[in-house]
Amino acid sequence: MLKTTIRYLYYCLLIATPLVWTSLNFELFEFNKMIFIYLLTTLIAGAWILDCLFSKRLIMRKSFMALPILLFLASQVVSTVTSMDLHTSIWGYYSRSNGGLLSIICYSLLFLVFTAYFTAQDLAGFLKATLFGGLIVALYAIPEHYGVSPSCVLLHHQWTASCWIQDVQARVFATLGQPNWLAAYLAMVIFIGLYLFLTAKDLLVRAIYLVILIGLNMAFSFTYSQSATLGLFAGLGVCFLSLIKSPQLSRKLMLLGLTVIVIINLSLGSGFKRLNLAQYLSQLNRTQTTNQPTANIPQPSVTPGVTQLEAGGTDSGKIRLIVWKGAWETFKHFPLFGTGVETFAYSYYLFRPTEHNLVSEWDFLYNKAHNEYLNYLSTTGMFGFGTYLLMIGVFIGWSVWFIAYRVSLSGKNNNEQRPTTNDQLLITCLLAAYISYLVQNFFGFSVVMIATLFYLFPAFGIVGAGQNTEGKVHFSLITLKDFFSNRAINLFSILVTAGTIAWLVFGIGTVWYADTLFALGMNYSESGVPTRAYKYLSQAQTLRPDEPYYKAELGFAAASTASLASDQDASLSGELVKVADQETKLALQASPANTSFYRTAIRTYYQLSALDDKYQKTTLQMLDKTIQLAPTDAKVYYNKGLILGQFGQTDEGLKALQKAIELKSNYREAYLTLGEFYQQLGQKDQAKEAYTTVFKLVPNDPEALDKMKELEK
């Protein structure tokens, strides 16, 4: 019974996880998927432990991947213990929880339990579940390309795609939340579809799989993802190499499947615009017939709310090189264990290259290195990076050996069981999917669904090849079988386990609900309604008193509410001032290296300084601490200059603005404010020079024109 429960929980994981999202949360997609993984892993691991208790043995099977995965998990534990931000390393960066220690524990458990319970006879169902989940996502994505988002239909009853701020028609993202993430997921699932197509025995079933494969590739093409396209073609290269030794029938079928994939990506477009044959033919047709209307294939565009790197814009390569340089510098300063799991958002600012100030996204927050390998290298050091490569290398090495092993046995007379053609095809397709993941991650980073497949696909390979059938481990629990045979003790252990499962499920639900309250609070805060923001942020913080993000934003909401109440209720305002100060300090104590929290603290104490002059000093201290954590960030110096000006310290403000300009020579706002400060000090020549520089950056800048007119009066 428990094995059946575990089986269906894995089906649910493979089908439902890519579909999970809600409009209620602070982050709609990744957060919900991670919560779902927490929930299913708790249930799967709980069922496994209960089964062990019922059977009075440890249900486990040996596999060659178990040790590398456990070594990698150990490296993440060490890097978490030594982290510059323990909370972030445990939970992951808020809103992008994948990669935190808890997520790695979940993925490791999912691998171990899968290989413990299932055999080659069970694998077909899991492969079909994976493909079915991908098909639903593809069917969700394809209408987006043609201007109808199922999300808009479901939430707003609008047969359009206008409910999204992002241009989902230009680059679809379905239920994954970002085009590159969708493409990376589909690239892996496509190879599962290819395997099922190649191994189908019935002609009708094979035709169905071919149609599914076409649908998956259509959705993939409409993402226009460069990194995922590179990954897909790298995986196709693995398949083409396998053709060298494949039997003739398999060769014909695989060539057909690969040809379909390539033709769709060439005809409908891909991450590489120059490969878009449909657009080329459309342009050719326009040159021949000027009176007939033609359709334009939407091209990749940068969408609001994501970085150029994630959107795959034209200057993404330049930005990547700068971010990679910062990641490498971080590793050089923390070579052994890194700065801590998932702390790149904080450590990068310490070594952020100055030239980052000159790119279009100079003030964007980068919580990933946009290269999975450099991300691990900088945040977990050589220990984490080395075990990560070991885990990858072991699976690739075994896959290559397995494929070659079957070929080497062909025609030999021995009694050893030989892998079948289907076994070879399975490992080939899983390896191709794995390679596609690794290649796209060189230019990006993993998210919840593809990270889940990264751990489960090796498990699929091990189970499918029968590598977990020998050496089954049935250790008696703590070698005290007689002890656990006692009915009272055994019942007590079962009840404790069941209670723990229930407690964890309740805790996971609480984390999710707290986030919905936090999302409401943040919406009200951004809308300028601090009283409502304070209400919901207080509720969120009560449910999750360990989350420093909630405390930081609650502090700002309290300060804003105190400002509103100061004229009407001095007593209430005073209490809110204390709350703002206390919550902000607690947030900074919990995450002392989090530059974002310090920026929030600056806003909080600046608000409080309007109520009490003593907070002016605290505001400046927060600015100086932020500069210490982000020494090359021009915006921090600019903000310091503005605030010093507000505090009547114009001379000091000038120095801060000049430093900002030194770091960012094209800083239009800094030059404009510099001119205003010089104007206030009566230094008209210097003010005119600053405004002239603004005109060089922005010809006929209206604000600078007004300031110049004031100077001439």
From TrEMBL:
Keyword annotations from UniProtKB, A to Z: Membrane, TPR repeat, Transmembrane, Transmembrane helix
Origin species: Candidatus Daviesbacteria bacterium RIFCSPHIGHO2_02_FULL_43_12
Transcription recorded as keyword: no
Localization of this protein: Membrane
Protein name: O-antigen ligase-related domain-containing protein
TPR repeats: 514-547, 634-667, 668-701
Highest taxon of the lineage: Bacteria
Domain O-antigen ligase-related residue range list: 222-388
GO cellular component, one term: membrane
Residue intervals passing through the bilayer: 9-29, 35-54, 66-94, 100-118, 125-142, 181-198, 203-222, 253-272, 382-404, 449-467, 488-514
InterPro entries listed in its UniProt record: O-antigen_ligase-rel_domated, TPR-like_helical_dom_sf, TPR_rpt, WaaL-like
Record bears the keyword Transmembrane: yes
Membrane topology, from the record: Multi-pass membrane protein
